[in-house]
Amino acid sequence: MTIESSITLKQLLDTTTDCLHELSNLGVQVDAWDIIVIYLIGSKLDVETRKQWELQVSQSCDELPSFKTFRDFLEKRFRALEFLEPQSSKSSSSTKALHVVSKISCPLCSEEHLLCRCKRKHHTLLHKKFDPNTEADSSAPVTSANKEPPQNESKAEPHISTHFAKNVRSQVLLATAVVKARSRNGYSQVLRALLDQGSQASFITESAVQLLKLKKMAVKTTISGLGGGHSDLTSKYMVQVNIQSLIDPNFNFQIKAYVLSRVTSILPERKFTLVDWPELHSVELADPNFNKPSKIDILLGSEAYTKILKEGLIKDPRGKTMAQDTYLGWIVSGEVEDEWQSHHKLTISMHAKVETDQILKRFWELEAEPTNSESSILSPEEQACEDYFAATTRRDENGRYIVKLPFRSKMDK
């Protein structure tokens, strides 16, 4: 990092946290790596951030800082930068700008208007589509400089963006669980699963397949989602995965999962804390770190979802978040709130449909013989072969077909 950037700083922290989390799942003891990790990440920070970190460490006690302290510092740092970046962009927009006064002339009638406003006959593809509801006259010369337009006169195209004046914003939490998956050599690996009742199939990442050393079965599958249209997302392989609950070791099941390079983005989008919900602390959660961003290794679809459900449902006092009992533990989902600003919103709709019928149909259509053979045009040699085959082919008393081969010398005669 050469300059202060909230996005780059957040990506650096998320990548480091994910790597440490994956190493912990593999059984590597990373608790004693704090000083090494702090040194490596600190060497990648910009000058101002490193300065603020050194000031904070010098004010603390003589003990060596932990990675948790370093992570909390980075979180506060990029949150502060996110708050300041919109203000800096707003102040930079007040720079001087010189507008050139130009006279617009129609190339067809030489009058002072655009070609799209010309009433004479012309090819409409020569310009963009004219919107009659637009009242702004683009032919009027612009003579203002270093002036900000009044709020009631500024008109711009609507852009999809989220800028919040409040300190509290919400995000939708999807249900996740930590499960054991049996590898090909008999060992078990811990994976983080996303539970999706709206998916007709289950999916697994390529990295998880390589970790478990599972045997791939070749398939050709198209995956579609919202809108019902065909998608460019395809899966070439399928694997069988044995899933075991961490809460109840006696509960296990097998699923068929399609292999994708990536199932979804890191979930949840941001770290948050649930308050005023004491019932949640008395149950055994399927994902103890459900409130911390981490990657998804496997998606369990509707078929697996129905196998793990149990009776039991509790809601928070606000009625926006719920916890549901399953054989994998209690899963948490719903709307949650956090207390920091964000300027980008990611909407995830985990709805997937596997379409194999269309692919098979296309395959057989390509391999099938032409149905309208009568209208096909044959060369004289091809027509002679067809006639020779129809005249000489017969079936003997044993049911075998006797076919004579056509030769060019016979056809020439």
Would you write up a description of this structure?
By secondary structure, this protein is α+β, with helices and mostly antiparallel strands. It folds into three domains: 81 residues, no CATH class; 185 residues, Acid Proteases (Cathepsin D, subunit A, domain 1); 36 residues, no CATH class. Helix 1 runs antiparallel to helix 4. It is extended.
Topology, please?
Blueprint (H helix, E strand, L loop, with lengths): L5 H20 L8 H9 L4 H13 L7 H26 L76 E5 L2 E7 L5 E8 L6 E4 H7 L4 E8 L9 E12 L6 E9 L37 E3 L1 H7 E7 L5 E6 L2 E10 L14 E3 L1 H11 L12 H13 L1 E2 L5 E2 L5 H5 L1
Parallel strand pairs: 3-8, 4-7
Antiparallel strand pairs: 1-11, 2-3, 2-6, 4-8, 5-6, 5-12, 6-7, 9-10, 10-11, 13-14
Helix pairs in contact: 1-4
Q: Give the total of beta strands.
A: 14
Q: Return residue spans where pLDDT drops below 50 for at least 5 consecutive residues.
A: 88-101, 133-168, 340-347
What's the rounded overall pLDDT mean?
A: 75
Helix content: 25-40%
Strand order of the largest sheet: 2-3-8-4-7-6
- By CATH, the topology of the largest domain is Cathepsin D, subunit A, domain 1
Kindly provide the radius of gyration, computed on alpha-carbon positions and rounded to a whole number of angstroms: 33 Å
- The N- and C-terminal alpha carbons lie at a distance of 85 Å
CATH architecture of the largest domain: Beta Barrel
The CATH class of the largest domain is identified as Mainly Beta
